[in-house]
Structures are given as C-alpha cells and as structure tokens.
Amino acid sequence: MNTQVIESLLETSLRQFVAAGEEGNLFLAEKSGLKLVFPLKSNDNERDRTRISEQEIRFLFIRAIDNAKDFDGYYAVEVPTVKKYRFKDIQPIVTGENKMDGYCSASIDVCLYNSKLDRTNLIEFKAHNAPLKHIEKDILKLVKESGDNYFVHVLKNIDNGTLPNVIDKYKDSISHVWPSDKCKNNCRRLTFYICVKSHSLIFKKTIELSQDSESDQLVRELAGKFQWSHDDITIEGWEKIKVISGE
Fold first, then answer.
1. What is the C-alpha to C-alpha distance for residues 194 and 202, in angstroms, rounded to an integer?
2. Nearest-angstrom CA–CA distance, 15 and 198
C-alpha cells in the first residue's frame, strides 16, 4: 500500500477534524463544509462543553478512504489482532502462541489491505491526554503486529506541559514494549500524528523499525525540544503542519 496515499488521507481527515463545527453553532458548521459536528456535554458548569473523541477522527478517515480515487485497497474496523495479548497486568504483554491462559486477540481500530486483501497497515486512534497504560497498550499492538503502522492522537486543547507529557508517554511506551522477548517486533515503520484542534496544528514523526533497533535509540528519535512562543509551537525533529482556515 502506498504510504503517501495513506498519509494524505490521514492528514485530510485531521484537517477536517480541526475545521469541524459544533452543536449549537450553525455558522461554524456551515463554514466547515462538513456534515459532522461535535456534540455538547450536558454539564453546563464546564467552560468549554464541546466533546471530542477518537470516534470523530476515525469516521472522517473512513469517509476520506471511501471518497479517494487513488486508494485501491480495502479497509476493516475493529479488526482482531494476529497475536494474543493480556492487558490485565500492570504492563500490557503479548505472546506469539495461540493458546495461553489469560491471552486473547485484541482489536485494531482500522486495518488497511492492499488490492489482494493482504494486511498492510494498522491504525490506532486516541483522544485526550490518556493514561500511560492506555497509550502503551495501543503502541504494543502496533509494534508487535506486521505493517507500516500509525498512531493518531487528537487533543482538544493544550497548555505548555501537554505535548511534552504526551511525548514522554510515547517514549515510556516504547521503552516498555520494545524489549519484550515474548514475541518479536514486526512493525517496519511507526508514524505518530498529534493533532491539536484548538491551535489548528498537526505534528508528525516517523521512526523506522528493524529487529536490530534498540529501544534507547527509538526513544531518542521521538524526543524533541519543545518550544512555545507567541502562540507558535514547535517540537524539534517533528514535522509541523499548520491547518489554514478554509482548506
């Protein structure tokens, strides 16, 4: 599967995620050109009641695939993994064996297939500054399963500590899951997307993986100096994509 096509579709859907309107604001909904809007929470005490989740970005991505003329493959959602996992422990673990007590297939948010229906890419979507264990569980699956895989993370808004904290969770996850000797790492390439809706920004980082890769090396590749000045945010070593209103 052509990764340029996949990443173009992901970035299109992330731009739409940023642009999408919200319940109760007809101006924003019409301006976005989308039928999708974010609903409002019922708690009137919250300053910002708009509710976002990973479901919106997943639906937008599937819509982008269905409308794409240059995507010649197939997709499935909530796809059972090939490997068997156990998530009840403090640290999620995996085994290559088919029958082990307490281990079972997990699920992947979206799986892409080529024109011959071979699995080529796995995509996990995450919203908010989720706990480390939840992020680690997704990264474990993406690393252990075959393919050029993607972790797509959407954030409603941030302060100057959010992005460093999120990337630290990526680094900790890689440190924990990569050295596992229960099952070899099969992912060839792992790409991270972070989308910040409030700032109309998308950050992207790809790390190349091989059986000889060291977890310390991968962690260093993910690490980047964070800078925030006059509403301009950069992460050293990460590509920044600014979403322009009306795109």
1. 6
2. 12
SS3 173: helix
Strand partners, 240: 203
| Contact between residue 58 and residue 77 where contact means Cβ atoms under 8 Å apart | yes
Length of the chain equals: 247
In sequence order, what DSSP letters do the residues of 4-24 get, joined into one string?
HHHHHHHHHHHHHHHH-EETT
* Amino acid occupying residue 190: L
First and final C-alpha spacing in the chain: 26
pLDDT in tens, 176-188: 888 765 567 889 9
CB atoms within 10 A of CB 210: 9
Q: How far apart are CA 60 and CA 74, in angstroms?
A: 16
Task: Please give the average per-residue pLDDT across 78-93, as a whole number.
Answer: 82
List pLDDT tens digits, range 134-191: 999 999 999 999 999 999 999 999 999 999 999 999 999 999 888 765 567 889 999 9
Q: How confident is the model at residue 232 (pLDDT cuts 50, 70, 90)?
A: confident
pTM for the structure as a whole: 0.93
Whole-angstrom Cα distance, residue 116 to residue 246? 37
88 and 133 Cβ atoms separated by less than 8 Å: no
Residue 191 tokens read as 């790409």
